[in-house]
Amino acid sequence: MIELTGKRALVTGAARGIGAGIAIELAAKGADVAITYERSADRAAEVVRAIKANGRHGIAIQADSADPAAVKRSVEAAAGQLGGLDILVNNAGIGRVGPLTELGLADLDALLNINVRAVVLASQAAIPHLREGGRIISIGSTLAERVPFAGSTVYAMTKSALHAFTRGLSRELGPQGITVNLVQPGSIDTDMNPADGEQADQLRSLTALGRYGKAEEIAAVVAFLASPAAGLITGAMITADAGFSA
Ligand code: NDP
User: Fold this and answer.
1) Interface predicted TM-score (ipTM)
2) Oxidoreductase: present as a keyword of the record (predicted)?
3) Which DSSP string do the residues of 161-202 spell out, in sequence order?
């Protein structure tokens, strides 16, 4: 039984895609939820409406994960407006594909800043608010386990950085009864990786189940990890990838 009544959550990058699915699922299980977004104010407002339709408190905060001050401000705003913070979901992420020789400095910085640095900074800002039973859940990628094609070298590298971060932080926060875990999706049908995209058939063919996942299927894993039922799980990489890494 997944029960999050009374919990307060912040989900980064949740105007669309996996983050939106997570925010709505956490609200459906009883949590009040703050989300961040970069540009999609209208989509963020839709997610807030869906949170409120579950009878929960929902707020949207514009914050570019590439901006350290904005990341810190968003965590403080979420904790302030929700009256505390129990769950941080580091979901915001970007992909950049292509040969390493063609990856420019701006793209490299964006990948590192959004996929790695923002996770560290949001966690740093959230820790003083978290209590016993608190949760830090980050969204990695199955590409940190297996990279079966060319073109995503640095993206995969940013996601593998979250392995050591998750393990190390679980040791740091374990004595306080706070768990830290990483969810590693495979191909999930979103704007980032549409199920009818150019590479979709190749990606599907690399899975055991022969299909893409849905945002709701990742949200279900996150909701479980956020719940008291998952209290023994920490420092773990939970892969939900249709068997892509099998
Ligand atoms: P989408 O591109 O569909 O959505 C990304 C979300 O993150 C949007 O809400 C977007 O906000 C937000 N976002 C992007 N950049 C920033 C930023 N700089 N600051 C704040 N918010 C930002 O991505 P997905 O839902 O597919 O991906 C979510 C996470 O899951 C990412 O970490 C991704 O790496 C990971 N993942 C995705 C997989 C997939 O197949 N889809 C597979 C494995 C991992 P806005 O709308 O305002 O731009």
Assistant:
1) 0.99
2) yes
3) HHHHHHHHHHHHHGGGT-EEEEEEE--B-SSSS-TTSTTHHH
